[in-house]
């Protein structure tokens, strides 16, 4: 009919769209192919920028093309006049801005913008900071833009207190802005450093920050951003790197060193030994026999300890970055098979620094504030977890808050059941810290049975233990016991253990009782074949249903005593 617009059918529309997509794909493929061909031929010119620009303008996450553009700009920088390069890079910043409007969270575009600014003859940092402001107005939680903002600030002369004020503005607009809180945690130690703790913040500033974050958590107790910042404010202290224990054994011809922190020997740190003032050579290895990061290091004395005389053994730890040294010595007399020295700690101080480096008065005030919030939010997991950490930091040996700590953990497992295993492991960690904090550091016999432990923590502090009982718990793994090179007897009955992984590093283990656990195969013991195991009891495990399992076990463990 005349005078009426012809309307395409659905089928015609789909066909038109299909043809349009095919045409776009052909153009995209041709441009991509052309760009790769030019790169392969070493053609670093403006045509390469044009080709890659056509693709990146619709797909800013094509990393290979960004890399090609980088190569072009580096070539131009080395071969063209400064004014030409400045103009080219200025145009590139405009192009990048259009790409970021397509995808404001494009890793490739933000990284390329950093590259351009680093290589630009005359960068305009104030313009870049304004661009960050613009994009953070679109999305105040765009962490790509926050990362780029930190790059701009670090590279230019932006006033840091001005930046801190900017984070305050963003936080007041939205307490849930995690990136603002995070950026704030990076700025404060630089602007207001604590002279006694280089990575901490001045105490008066910390108190102000506590007020700021309390406003946030009382306004919205369910928002995790402010809680993470609150945890940062309480802080975790840094242990000073030093030697905690030195153990020497004539039987194994080894010297063992326990440190306060993890290091990698010969990578920034050195350990050296002398016996009667003579240096001892050899390779330091951790308990697994490798050179990876560890807190325990072992040196095998190649020719054994000199016999028939008293030995004065000295160990020195050198930190190469600041040339600090820490030395520890011990005496191994003629009639001794072994000797050791272990640093002593005041009860309640061994692990407290891991929980908080804040002053006790600060933590007491925070505890009062969080208890007040708890009275109106009794089932909030963040409130409960923070209460837990504060009480543990204030009362590390559980003399004052024992019942409250236990109640908080039980409540957490109920209100946040998806993380029940985490809270039970945390309970086990606290329990072990309480025990280790008050026990004799020289103990060789230790009992941890019937404590409802789900995991074993801080086993490095049990490095001297020879006999250990962890029966009647809820353990599934013995791997942490690999830190016990002196272990001779292990009783681990009535648990949920399904593997002996870790025990292969207990080179002196002779007695192993694993009754009523979850061990299913005899082959699981193959890693223990080199140990001097004489007494192994696995009754009550599923593997006992295997025919002739005892014979199979003896075949794997040749040191087992005959029945």
Features:
Serine Threonine Protein Phosphatase 5, Tetratricopeptide repeat; single chain; Immunoglobulin-like; 45% helix; five-stranded antiparallel beta sheet; five-stranded parallel beta sheet; 563 residues; alpha/beta; 4 domains
Please count the beta strands (DSSP E, at least 2 residues each): 16
Largest sheet: 5 strands, antiparallel
CATH fold group of the largest domain: Serine Threonine Protein Phosphatase 5, Tetratricopeptide repeat
Question: Could you give me the name of the CATH homologous superfamily of the largest domain?
Answer: Protein prenylyltransferase
Distance between the termini: 104 Å
β-strand percent reads: 5-15%
Q: Identify the CATH architecture of the largest domain.
A: Alpha Horseshoe
Total domains, how many?
Answer: 4
The top-level CATH class of the largest domain is Mainly Alpha
- Rg (CA only): 32 Å
- Quaternary status: single chain
Mean pLDDT: 90
Low-pLDDT windows of residues: none
Level of helix content? 40-55%
Count up the helices.
17
Task: List the strand order in the largest sheet.
Answer: 7-8-4-3-11
Class by helix and strand content?
alpha/beta
The 3D shape can be described as: globular
